[in-house]
Each structure stands twice: as structure tokens, then as C-alpha cells.
Design brief:
The chain has 232 residues and is of the alpha+beta class. It has helices at residues 6-30, 35-39, 42-53, 55-61, 78-82, 84-96, 137-141, 160-163, 201-225; strands spanning 68-73, 109-114, 117-123, 129-135, 144-150, 168-176, 179-186. The longest helix has 25 residues, at 6-30.
Length: 232
């Protein structure tokens, strides 16, 4: 038998062994993260994560306060993904009233609560600021908030293990001159592992925990300031 035929078999076996080892390391690393303990450090994590990983938000806010922040997105479902052009048209008509044309994006979006204003930022393919929409206290007081479930930005099936790291969403719907405008608020910041940390599972999981603590407090801070956004 030609030894070359054995190479794919060896690679498959090596891959399986590697996955088993990494799964065991992942399970061990998870036991070292106490999410409830990290939640008690919200104020610390909010400032630390902002300075270390999301400094662009401070630049985009141009000196305005950042009371809370998290990731966000434009809603997508199996129904409206197929009718993307139509749904985008409705959103753009609604946003034209506030002078902004928000395109359907797959890039990162962010929310920032600053005083009585909500800021929604969308980015381009390289992470630069694309659109900046500001909702003042009058629009927020007329808005509605509902639970949106687990975010599934790509149509398809997800295993239970991967769903653990998908953000849960709240959908905030604004009334823009009679037209509804719905946007998603994530319960955690979007996390992309640093290539240098791919084998450092402890650091990855701790960073994920910090991102979750910062993000999940956004809705709480928002609801405390605007009681009309309490869920029914």
C-alpha cells in the first residue's frame, strides 16, 4: 500500500485527538470562571473593557459620557432575510425622518447610553464608523422593549454548546413618525478571540465573562432610567 494513502487517515485521527484534548481543557477552564463573582465587578469591567477593547466608542462619543454600552444588530429572521430588500426599505423610510439611512448590515453594531440619549453605531467591513443614530429621551419614552430570544445571525442549526455563547437579545421598537423601527440589543459584547489567545482557554473564557457582565447590564441601566421599557 502506498504510504501516501495513510496521510489523510493520520490527519483525521490527530484532529479527533486534538478536539478531545481541547474539549477537556475547555471544560476544566469553565470551572475556574465564577460568573456571579464577575457580576459583582461590573463597574470595574465596564471601564476596563472600554479602555482595552472598545476605545473607539469613546472616540465616536466625542467626550460625551458613556453610562452603559453593549453590542447590537438589525433584526433578522428567516422571513425577513429572504425579503431583505423590502425590510430594508421600510427601515430606511423610517430612519429618513431622523436624517439617517441605515443599511442592512452584517458588521458590528453598538449601543451607548449617554445621559438621556441612546446612541446606535454601525460599522463598515473594517470596523470603521458607518452610521451614528441618536434617539433622544422623547423617542425612548415612546419606545417599547421586548425579549427577542437567542440571536442567530446566520440561518442554520446551532448545537446547545454553541448556543451558550450566542447573545440573547431584547428588541427595542421606536415610533418614527408613525413607522416602527426595531433594533436589537445584545446581552453581551461581540467577542472575537485574539489569534494569540487561541490556545489560552482561561483568558478567552474570562474575557467572554467580562463582555457578558458589561453587556447584560445595559438593559438594566436603560430600564432604570426609562421605566416605560420594563417588560410586561
Amino acid at each position: 500500500m502506498n504510504p501516501l494513502f495513510l496521510i489523510p487517515v493520520v490527519l483525521v485521527i490527530a484532529g479527533i485527538i486534538f478536539m478531545v484534548i481541547m474539549n477537556k481543557k475547555h471544560a476544566a477552564a469553565k470551572t475556574e470562571i465564577d460568573l456571579d463573582l464577575e457580576r459583582t465587578k461590573y463597574d470595574l469591567h465596564k471601564e476596563e473593557v472600554l479602555k482595552q477593547d472598545f476605545l473607539q466608542l469613546k472616540q465616536w462619543m466625542k467626550g460625551k459620557s458613556i453610562d452603559a454600552y453593549t453590542s447590537g444588530s438589525v433584526p433578522q429572521t428567516k422571513a425577513n432575510k429572504v425579503q431583505e430588500v423590502v425590510s430594508d426599505g421600510l427601515k430606511n423610510v423610517a430612519l429618513s425622518a431622523v436624517g439617517v439611512k441605515l443599511q442592512r448590515v452584517e458588521t458590528e453594531c453598538f449601543w451607548v447610553l449617554s445621559g438621556n440619549d441612546l446612541h446606535f453605531f454601525s460599522t463598515d467591513a473594517v470596523g470603521e464608523l458607518d452610521e451614528h443614530v441618536i434617539f433622544d429621551n422623547f423617542r425612548i419614552e415612546d419606545a417599547k422593549l421586548e425579549y427577542g430570544g437567542i440571536l442567530k445571525s446566520q440561518l442554520g442549526l446551532y448545537s446547545k454548546s454553541s448556543e451558550e455563547y450566542l447573545p440573547k437579545t431584547h428588541i427595542i421598537t421606536f415610533n418614527i413618525e408613525g413607522s416602527p423601527l426595531a433594533l436589537e440589543i445584545h446581552d453581551r459584547l461581540h467577542y472575537v478571540p485574539d489569534p494569540t489567545d487561541l490556545l489560552n482557554l482561561n483568558k478567552q473564557l474570562l474575557t467572554r465573562a467580562k463582555y457578558q457582565v458589561v453587556g447584560e447590564n445595559f438593559v438594566k441601566v436603560l430600564q432604570n432610567k426609562f421605566p416605560n421599557l420594563q417588560l410586561a
